[in-house]
Amino acid sequence: MTSQDPKQSQAEKKLHDSENMFRILFETSQNAIFIMKENFFIECNQNSLEMFKCEHGDIIGHTLMEFSPAIQPDGTDSSNKAFAKIDAAWKGEPQLFEWQHKKFDGTLFDTEIRLNLIQLSTGPLILATVKDFTDHKIVENALSDSQNKYKTLFQKSADAILIIEGDKFVDCNDATVKMLKYDNKAELLETHPSALSPPRQPDGRDSFEKANEMMSIAIDHGSHRFEWDHKRKDGEVFPVEVLLTSVPLPEGHFIHVVWRDITLKKQDQINLEKALEDAKQGAKIKSLFLANISHEIRTPLNSIIGYADLLKEMLDDRVGADEKEFFDIIDRSGQRLIRTVHEILDMSQMDTQSYNLNINEFDLSLIVQQAITELTPRIKEKNLTIDFYSEIKNPILVADEYCITQAVSNIIDNAIKYTNEGGLTIWIDENIENTILVIKDTGIGISKVYLKQVFDIFSQESAGYSRKYEGLGLGLALTKRYLEVNNAEINIDSIKGAGTKVTITFPKEETS
Q1: Are residues 68 and 110 in the same domain?
Q2: Predicted structure pTM score
Q3: Who has the most CB within 10 Å: 112, 316, 421, 468?
Q4: How much is the average pLDDT of 70-96?
Q5: Which residues, 6 or more positions from 379, have their beta carbon under 8 angstroms from its beta carbon?
Q6: Rg of the chain in Å (alpha carbons)
Q7: Which CATH number characterizes residue 404's domain?
Q8: How many structural domains are present in the chain?
Q9: Same domain, 303 and 236
Q10: Given this model, what pLDDT does residue 461 score?
Q11: What is the pLDDT of residues 300-331, one digit of tens each?
Q12: Where are the alpha helices (DSSP H) in 185-262?
């Protein structure tokens, strides 16, 4: 019996242990592992069967090509590429490459393959490790799509887009080159923002210092939006709106820059400001004109009315009833014209906001009673009734007395004008927050259609030469403005042929 060489026995034991460890790793690996001999699979682990959806016998004795499409995604022939990689591995050159495999059911999927030459007791073999790359490819493709979309947006954007690294532009799109009138982007890259700007900004600050400050704000706060003056290659200075967005990346800190040319916007703003100034000036001229024309009309009118009254008294016992009516016509016409001039002047002041409010305390019931007294002759002339009462002992308002007087008088006057039978009922009430004045008549009412425009200036339901009632259509429009400047509200409820109810709500104010 021949005794075994101890060194040989020890070497065989190490080889055996090594092969056992290899077997353990082979079976427990998370990847698919194949062993190849002469380009055929002679063994595989359990993960291989799960990855390729097949049985052990479907793999053993087969080649790599039987689990691959004819052409790889890069357009190369799978057979040629596979044999080249395997041949290199047989020469002892480790291989790592991406590969598209095919499951047993024909489904294609992406993998990463490692090929290594190993030495076992049975001789040299190829160890092929296959890692499923499907999820990785999905992420990679999504990233690639995102990058392509960004590049498209970057290049096709109508706004200028630039990238700052440190304090210099390192990239820009074509819109930037076009906006600055350069020949190519190489001319403006590696420049500080101030190099593409006038020496000073509109606020007088140095462009270099201010640009650094703007970039620091963007880095500290994440983004920063502001207006800036830039300069084209030909020296023309133009305004832009700038948006800086800080983008920290592993390879460094970048600032994403967007410029939007606001030259037209600025010009429109200048034109608007000029138009507003012209309008204000026009409004002043209009107010001055109306004030002067009002004075020029009222002065002779007052003289005409005054002398007509004087003549009426002097000739009272010399003329008959018909001739006395002439003097009454002069008086009524003159008063009507004066009232019209007052309305036009007040409307002008309200529209131009040149009316100066004179706030004081007064009794609303006295205002109503005064209006009724002044309009009593017309009430009697039309044989109407009028009933006025107040649920409040002292309905005190804090407002402009002239505005409230004119508003109340206009509404009662309208109620009388458009009521031919019956009469008016007027009352004052209150709730916790408001004092309320209601004026209700039994007149002709207002149609639903016209009710929507009842407060429009120069608006009358009956218009044209055939209209039944006098006036310019300023009364309710002006009344609404009288009330609005005093924070009061007016609401009208009406049914055509069944009368009108006007409700005015005055907010309660603390009295002194």
Answers
A1: yes
A2: 0.44
A3: 112
A4: 91
A5: 372, 386, 416, 423, 424
A6: 48
A7: 3.30.565.10
A8: 4
A9: no
A10: 53
A11: 767 777 777 777 777 777 777 777 677 777 77
A12: 207-221
Specify if 147 maps to a domain: no
Amino acid found at 299: T
Sign for the CA dihedral angle at 400, 401, 406, 408 comes to positive
Higher pLDDT, 40 or 143: 40
Which residue's entry shows tokens 């009061």? 488
Q: What is the 3-state secondary structure (H, E, C) of 26-43?
A: HHHCCCEEEEEECCEEEE
What is 499-511 written as a DSSP string? -EEEEEEEE----
Which of these, 218, 226, 15, 34, lies nearest to 123 by C-alpha position?
15
Q: Indicate whether 397 and 282 sit together in one domain.
A: no
- Cα(13)–Cα(227) distance, integer angstroms: 80
Same domain, 253 and 272: no
Q: Are residues 363 and 502 in the same domain?
A: yes
CATH number at residue 249: 3.30.450.20
Dist. CA 201–CA 227, nearest whole Å = 10
Integer Cα distance of 173 and 182 in angstroms: 12
Q: Would you give the DSSP letter of residue 306?
A: H
Q: Contacts by 201-209 with C-beta closer than 8 Å and gap 24+? A: 201/228, 201/229, 202/229
- Could you tell me if residue 279 is inside a domain? yes
pLDDT value for 438: 95
- Average pLDDT on 126-136 reads 86
- Looking at 121-159, which runs of residues are DSSP E strands? 123-132
Find the largest Cα–Cα distance for the chain.
178
Identify the domain containing residue 23 by its residue range: 6-133
Which pLDDT tens digit goes with each residue over 271-311? Answer: 888 888 877 777 677 666 766 766 666 677 677 777 777 77
What is the sign of the dihedral through the CA atoms of 24, 25, 26 and 32? Answer: positive
Q: Domain for residue 384, yes or no?
A: yes
CA–CA distances in Å: residue 337 to residues 289, 302, 305, 333: 17, 10, 11, 6
141 domain-assigned:
no
